Amino acid sequence: MAGNGNENADGDFSFSAAAARDALPRITTEKGAKSADVCHDDTAPRVNFQTIDELHSLQKKRSAPTTPLKEGGGVVMGTSGPTTPSSGETMLQSVSASLASLTRETGPKLIRGDPTSAAKVAHVPHTPTSVPAADVSDSGLKFTHILHNLSPAELYEQAIKYEKGSFVTSTGALATLSGAKTGRSPKDKRVVKDETTASELWWGKGSPNIEMDEQTFLVNRERAVDYLNSLDKVFVNDQYLNWDPENRIKVRIVSARAYHSLFMHNMCIRPTPEELENFGTPDFTIYNAGKFPCNRYTHYMTSSTSVDINLGRREMVILGTQYAGEMKKGLFGVMHYLMPKRKILSLHSGCNMGKEGDVALFFGLSGTGKTTLSTDHNRYLIGDDEHCWSDAGVSNIEGGCYAKCIDLSREKEPDIWNAIKFGTVLENVVFDEHTREVDYNDKSVTENTRAAYPIEYIPNSKIPCIGPHPKNVILLACDAFGVLPPISKLDLAQTMYHFISGYTALVAGTEEGVKEPRATFSACFGAAFIMLHPTKYAAMLAEKMQAQGATGWLVNTGWSGGSYGAGSRIKLAYTRKIIDAIHSGSLLNATYHKTEIFGLEIPNEVEGVPSEILEPMNAWEDKEAYKDTLLKLAGLFRNNFETFTSHKIGDDGKLTEEILAAGPNF
Ligand SMILES: Nc1ncnc2c1ncn2[C@@H]1O[C@H](COP(=O)(O)OP(=O)(O)O)[C@@H](O)[C@H]1O
Ligand SMILES: C=C(OP(=O)(O)O)C(=O)O
Ligand SMILES: [Ca+2]
Ligand SMILES: [Mn+2]
């Protein structure tokens, strides 16, 4: 009903304009009313805006220097460079150099800020330069907006506005999808083999380094750079690796998704505003064009995914996979090359420290418990996955943790649970569409659901993430055969034997195509990431453990009472008790008995752990089946070690012999 109708006494409506005017009630002002009697709210503040736009412009305070937009709106970096660059311009020049095509003269024109504020671009004076027509391309004429080191809040907004599948969960985390790939693609990881790397790196059987030539790398690099420059905007993260200030590495990550930028914001070390201001040229750059496939007509390409490392150029290119773990583990590979050159051992291990300063390392393959067991409410967390061991002690390479969250429970893993809050990236989890509560048991997208959070989200993290020399070196194996003891003490030769073997049952999920746990051997508990021959890392570990008098332990976080399918996984609560006994030193004084075949020293008792499970055979009903399975596993160990029998470990011929003798005897 139209609002200008008037109801008469009969309830009819009259639309006569005159009648309507006559029927308007008159508002009369009471004569003689003093102004003092009128309710006068003199607490109402003055307004500082005349228009809605002005009001909105007041909402955001300028912040420096991580996210400033220069006065006048936007710094442009294109074919004409400014004469005395401000820090914003220096950053754009540096990013422009990173994104420069190798085949065209004109690099991309870059502008800071989100393209939705692009109105400002038109007003920026831009001196025309004459370029030969042949060198001009459309992509060289357009602007690419650079979103440089955005804050988590800004990245949330970018993700939610522009990336399908990005949502805020009930605890404030950013849930997102990694696309078709929900785990790493080790078979698509390639390393440029040039004159230097041909002799320095480990190539051939067992090596993760699948070769590619420089030319093919450049083809993929150009593909990634062209893709990124074709976008309206790209995210750039300038960050650090390694908390050891003397061995810090500057990394730049150029990516197409806010999800990738937030992931690396969390996983790498975050520079202070001052450090960012003076960042300069990165030591290593990742071009993440993961949304875009590689070209299968390109030499060496066997799928649409390619993760390429060029140590000479200090660059990494990602095509055809959006799984964020490729970036962090790719950089880890680079550290496995750079650090040993400086006589620093890089470790695929978690690391924590007790109140007395006792440091423990937790080596293990994916899913064996590095993150879970290094996150310990009674100890300081140094890091969950990647460390360095130098002459000064240990340092974390990263600034965040990347926890598996399948079946995550508040009760069993409270610190990880509580870290899943605003700022945390939650990959591939399933949540209620209304409440946005995450169902951590749901494997609909993948088994490899993950949470990436800054390390300070763990309340007892040790910042800076460094510590003294390790006292205990714990090797984690998730034994799907159920024949390795839950805990055994190792001598140095045994520690080296098991370190080089790197046995576990690969739990489904982290690598593409693995659906069931299956026995696997991965040298140094991280063959997918090492660059040099495993014996080089083993020799360094032996030397450091010997020098520091560290004790080696083998902890089976896998099955007990039977193999996968028949037995059951050892309760996390028991494994924690075992780890407590290692840390407290009480296990050093326990009485031990030696096992057949593997010659492992098993303690007779561990406080809080049922003694029946300490000796694996006792937990099996079918003793014959146990013996057969044990022999089968011993055979697998022996076969695997054959490739290492011809290698010497360090300068000590005696140690090499001892290591060979430390394997199973049957
Ligand atoms: N006894 C156990 N010890 C360690 N982890 C266990 C155990 N039982 C089950 N788990 C589960 O196994 C997974 C170990 O994964 P995680 O700690 O992320 O491994 P990593 O960091 O080595 O990849 C976690 O989901 C954890 O809850
Ligand atoms: C992220 C990974 O590591 P982890 O499972 O050891 O945490 C990975 O291997 O992709
Ligand atoms: Ca878990
Ligand atoms: Mn982990």
How would you describe this structure to a colleague?
This is phosphoenolpyruvate carboxykinase (ATP). It is a single chain. This protein has 666 residues and is α/β, with parallel strands linked by helices. The protein has a domain at 474-491 and 502-521 and 530-661: Alpha-Beta Complex (Phosphoenolpyruvate Carboxykinase, domain 3). Helices cover 27% and strands 21% of the residues. A hairpin with a 6-residue loop joins strand 33 and strand 34 (601-603). Helix 13 (492-501) crosses helix 18 (653-661). The protein is globular and about 100 Å long. The termini are far apart. The relative contact order is 0.09. It binds adenosine-5'-diphosphate, phosphoenolpyruvate (PEP), calcium ion (CA) and manganese (II) ion. Residues 184, 325, 329, 366-367, 370-371, 385, 402, 510 line the site of phosphoenolpyruvate.
Q: Averaged pLDDT, please? A: 88
| Portion in strands | 15-25%
Strand order of the largest sheet: 3-4-5-10-11-12-14-13-8-9
Instruction: Count every beta strand, where a strand is a DSSP E run of 2 or more residues.
Output: 34
CATH topology of the domain at 474-491 and 502-521 and 530-661: Phosphoenolpyruvate Carboxykinase, domain 3
Spans with pLDDT under 50 lasting ≥5 residues? Answer: 1-20, 66-75, 119-127
Radius of gyration: 31 Å
Helix content: 25-40%
Structural classification: alpha/beta
Largest sheet: 10 strands, mixed
Bound ligands, each once: adenosine-5'-diphosphate, phosphoenolpyruvate, calcium ion, manganese (II) ion
- Count the helices. How many? 18
> Roughly how many Å apart are the termini?
95 Å
Q: What is the oligomeric state here?
A: single chain
Looking at the overall shape, the CATH architecture of the domain at 474-491 and 502-521 and 530-661 is Alpha-Beta Complex
3D shape: globular
CATH class category of the domain at 474-491 and 502-521 and 530-661: Alpha Beta
